[in-house]
UniProtKB/TrEMBL annotation:
Protein name as it appears in the record: 3-phosphoshikimate 1-carboxyvinyltransferase
GO-annotated cellular components: cytoplasm
SUPFAM superfamilies: EPT/RTPC-like (SSF55205)
GO biological process, one term: amino acid biosynthetic process
Organism this protein belongs to: Alkalicoccus saliphilus
Amino acid sequence: MHKTIDTALKPLQGSVTIPGDKSISHRAVLFAAIAEGPSVIKGFLNGQDCLSTISCMRKLGVKIEEDGEIIRVEGKGLHGLNEPSEILDVGNSGTTVRLLSGILAGQSFSSVMTGDESIGRRPMRRVTGPLKMMNASIDGRDFANYTPLCMRGGSLQGVHYVSPVASAQVKSAVLLAGLYAQGVTRVTEPHKSRDHTERMLETFGVKVETDEVSAAVSGGQKLTGSEVDVPGDVSSAVFMLAAGALVPGSEITVRNVGMNPTRTGAIDVLKRMNADMHIHSERMLGGEPVADITIKSGALQAVTISGGEIPRLIDEIPVLALLATQAEGTTVIKDAAELKVKETNRIDTVVNQLNELGADCEATDDGMIIHGPTPLKGGKVESFHDHRIGMTMSLAGLIASDKVLVKDTEAIAVSYPGFYKDLEKLMN
Ligand SMILES: O=C(O)C1=C[C@@H](OP(=O)(O)O)[C@@H](O)[C@H](O)C1
Ligand SMILES: C=C(OP(=O)(O)O)C(=O)O
């Protein structure tokens, strides 16, 4: 499916409510499945990735009822999952394959996970390595680095894993395996990654010990079924905020934005870019901070984005790059080599597709350099089946001088199925 985006002829106005957080929705289903007793998840994201998590857990024998944004899960307890008779298909979801690896590492049965072509290119040794250190038996292409992964676990031993990458998927997989392991399992990262696992394990009754860059659990702790309220996904909200910042004369409000400090790097960057933004109605929802954000369009300044800030905005870099094409000065994004192992190599795809429309971006080894402001022109661009690239290029179409055709936009349903509907609401 291709989508043609027309230049926005009038300012955006009004408000949208941001749908559920993808990271939190995955975790809610996974943790509820291995908890004892029923759980109810409210505000669940019905994106393709989270639906892949539901489908894998069903194949492991978990009863899950879907009722729009409300999901009911009959927990099976830590040791109640069944050996699956079919291959577990994670679709396009890195979070599903990596977090589920941690749970499957604790099962004495055999299971096989695979996913789409993009998943088949993403590195899995970062999780299978530490899980093997804990005593899980895992095989796959290139010595368990690529899917399909074949796992048989059980009898795990706790470890202190010092991860070379700041990755919440690695941290979560190891901590989940740690629930099945003898003794204490600790993960230390170079920078703090999103901490939804630590927060939600506590909601399910597990004691997690944390400090700035480490998290630890003791094995054998059971989870108790719970009620989870999923806040809106800040990663999706940033697309709407960018639309409001870019289309001249706009003033919009995005509601229900998850404001977990491990996720709000892009909000900090928008402030540094001088975006006219007001954060209000701050509140707590399901153990996570939430707010509404009003933004007006206006002149933007170039910024430098690097270091410990990168994990706090890793998924927002494509759209921040688009904003940088319209900012005064040179934006430098570095320390972001992780972008190369996402759904696409997001350094190359972002730089090449923005340049197709007349931007002035250069790829570097660990990021990109963007010279702005440059007017964007119409054209045909690829999403390469990467949801974040599809949304970024669609927003480029709003400010380009002519129509932009974005290819394969169905991928957007991976994280934000209502993206065009929300955008159209702001355009009417
Ligand atoms: O744990 C999570 O829910 C996620 C962690 C991040 O990946 P890494 O752990 O690879 O950094 C992020 O890019 C992904 O969209 C979701
Ligand atoms: C990288 C992403 O997700 P995942 O790793 O779950 O595929 C993303 O949502 O941008």
